[in-house]
């Protein structure tokens, strides 16, 4: 679409969108003539604006009130006119301090959403990696009443979790201790998928006193190391959108907050970008969600040890400072990945 724009039209479109993002008001031809730095008359600018309006890149919300960018205009701006600014050193230091290695994954993810929200002044979002992607470091089983068992799990990403499981039969304290010792000795540092495959293979090949122990290990490890009903996604800063001029319509806000509460559609949108290279930007209807009309979602995948673990991003109005938000989202993804893999030097 933007290939048909001559340099003068491109410059004016960039100037108009930058000024609208900064001020939040429609931009008139006289204002553009002053701020563009071009030696052209307001009449010439009006003609160029009419052309841009005809191809759907700008719109006039009211008669003679100046123009604002359309979602298509923002798309051209982001794809070919944007001059991205690197994250300032002071901001980067603050981000790195908030995402320091050593904290458990859940704490890091919570810090990530809060950080994204605080720095963008919009909504910060991060998908939660499935626990099955992390190996466990140590496991203990503690018998409770009836058949219930308390599982104490330490994962290799420093996350500690307590879970209560209910096996198909009651296990004695001795059986639970034996099973924990067996799993710690033979499977620490391995994922549930690997553990399950090895145990089932060994169980098929074994017809001895080991069979009882292996059967217990299969059942207890599957329940203990499963997903356990964890959150799929964390959000922070939803109420910040209540102060955004473009989203002030109550019905629109209600739809948006209902989408945040359901999470499913937003999670599906984020998961579409899990194998993307770098930052992806969805503007308005590009999200595929009616509730996101008037919103932009900026996302980037994060990972550790060469594995993609999830996606993080910012949800805000289409009128956002893209030149700041895009590099901020990428830097946050890099820092979170480094924090989840302390052996890798931090960016």
How would you sum up this structure, described in words?
A hairpin with a 4-residue loop joins strand 5 and strand 6. It is elongated, with a radius of gyration of 26 Å. The protein folds into three domains: 2-81, Arc Repressor Mutant, subunit A (Orthogonal Bundle); 89-128 and 231-340, Beta-Lactamase; 132-224, Enolase-like, domain 1 (2-Layer Sandwich). The model has no long low-confidence stretch (mean pLDDT 85). The two termini are 36 Å apart. The protein has a five-stranded antiparallel β-sheet, with helices on both faces. Strands 4-5-6 form a three-stranded antiparallel β-sheet. A two-stranded antiparallel sheet has the order 1-2. Helix 1 (7-23) crosses helix 4 (71-81), helix 2 (29-36) packs across helix 3 (42-54) and helix 7 (173-187) crosses helix 9. The chain contains twelve helices and ten strands. By secondary structure, the chain is an alpha+beta fold. Belongs to the HrcA family. Residues 6-76 form the Winged helix-turn-helix transcription repressor HrcA DNA-binding domain. This is Heat-inducible transcription repressor HrcA.
Summarize this structure briefly.
Belongs to the HrcA family. The chain has 347 residues and is α+β, with helices and mostly antiparallel strands. It is built from twelve helices and ten strands.
Key terms:
single chain; 347 residues; alpha+beta; Arc Repressor Mutant, subunit A; Beta-Lactamase; Enolase-like, domain 1; 3 domains; five-stranded antiparallel beta sheet; three-stranded antiparallel beta sheet; 10 strands; 46% helix
